[in-house]
Amino acid sequence: MHESPVTKGEGSPARLRVRLTAAAEKHVRSGHPWVFSDSVREQNREGEAGELAVIYDRNDSFLAVGFFDPDSPIRVRILHTGKPLTIDAKFWRERLDAAIQRRDGLFDERTTGYRIINGESDGWPGLVLDRYDATLVMKIYTAAWRDRLEEIAGLIRERLKPARVVLRYSRNVEERMAIADLKAKADDKVVFLENGLQFEADVVRGQKTGFFLDQRENRRIVESLAKGRTVLNAFSFSGGFSVYAACGGAKSVSDLDISAHALESARRNFALNDPDVNVATCQRETIQADGFEWLAGNAGRRFDLIVLDPPSLAKRESERAGAIRAYGNLAGDGIKHLSRDGILLACSCSAHVSAEEFFNAVRTAATRSGRRFTEFQTTRHAPDHHASFKEGEYLKGIYLKFV
After folding, report:
1. Which of 42, 207, 279, 376 lies at a 20 to 30 A Cα distance from 69?
2. Do 216 and 349 have their domain in common?
């Protein structure tokens, strides 16, 4: 990469050059990985999705380079800031090695499901890579990767030597990604290990990349709290929290979810772990219902441990205030179902709701319940899902014990 405009060859357009507002320039210089469309002050020509845009500062010096996308509100996704360099195979190989090394020592042979590349936070904007045993799932969140998919998939196969690589697209870019031949033929379900427990991942059609790997740490905590308790796993999806609770010696677990498909997946995950005597002897109940409605009613039901892990309640900034109220109401309804000495775990995966906003909503609901309680832990991202910028910080959990 050079500071002056270069051409790609005879008849090719000059390198796309971009200048930003003063505020955006400051953000990029401080390491923020996104440039929004309203921050672009000037560009020398129209750009295409996925081409490299070179950002120059007010002194006409190289500032950064990133993927350009004319159809996204995130106009440039930053790949590199500082001194000019070449974005080539060596660059991507070093980025992949850095992501792998960042996870060295985090997992042993008892865990074969984890994140290898966490998008912008690992220097791979709009791309995540998850491992499920011998299967890797690469999910794309921007059309800017379109012309590089074969190169990147080849690099991943060469470096990690998986049995297969499954390519998936987020909904917002699926119709823009014309490449289908990289969608590896794969079984729908892949079984992997997490702390010695077995789970299945629907790597082709499941949510995220097939499983909620990001909640691993909270599942381990629930396991440590579950002995002898009756457990309600609200918004249970594929039953991860429930399996861990059963393994930890829970007396009973109740999976609550509106989806029959999710409840069936949870049943299969329990069956996978039947060899564990605690799992085999734990009483299990399934409740197919809307989690919000069920918790708002059914006043007679009490549990010793309740997990509230709803889907994101704020997918855009305009929904933030409503989501904060909803989290508070949900926590209040959950508390009503807690028995004496009961424990509540409330989680949020809404990036538009900050950790303190979420924690305060749950604390306020606890105070309004009139019950004495102790807050004994809060959690954020697991190490393989580390977040390096504010918008990447979505996951949070808070643990309260009630008298």
Report:
1. 207
2. yes
> Which CATH number does the domain housing residue 174 bear?
3.30.750.80
Measured between alpha carbons, how far is 215 from 165 in angstroms, rounded to an integer?
Answer: 23
C-alpha to C-alpha distance for 174 and 180, rounded to whole angstroms: 10
User: Is residue 261 within 8 Å of 268, Cβ to Cβ?
Assistant: no
Q: By C-alpha distance, which of 237, 231, 290, 223 is closest to 266?
A: 237
Q: Which residue has the tokens 């990133």?
A: 66
Question: At a CB cut-off of 8 Å and minimum separation 6, what does 390 contact?
Answer: none
- Residue 301: CB atoms within 10 Å: 15
Residue with tokens 């006043």, as numbered in its chain: 299
Helices (H), 52-130: 89-102
Q: Are 265 and 202 in contact (CB under 8 A)?
A: yes
Please tell me the distance from the alpha carbon of residue 162 to that of residue 123, in angstroms, as a whole number: 22
Per-residue pLDDT tens digits for 235-276: 999 999 999 999 999 999 999 999 999 999 999 999 999 999
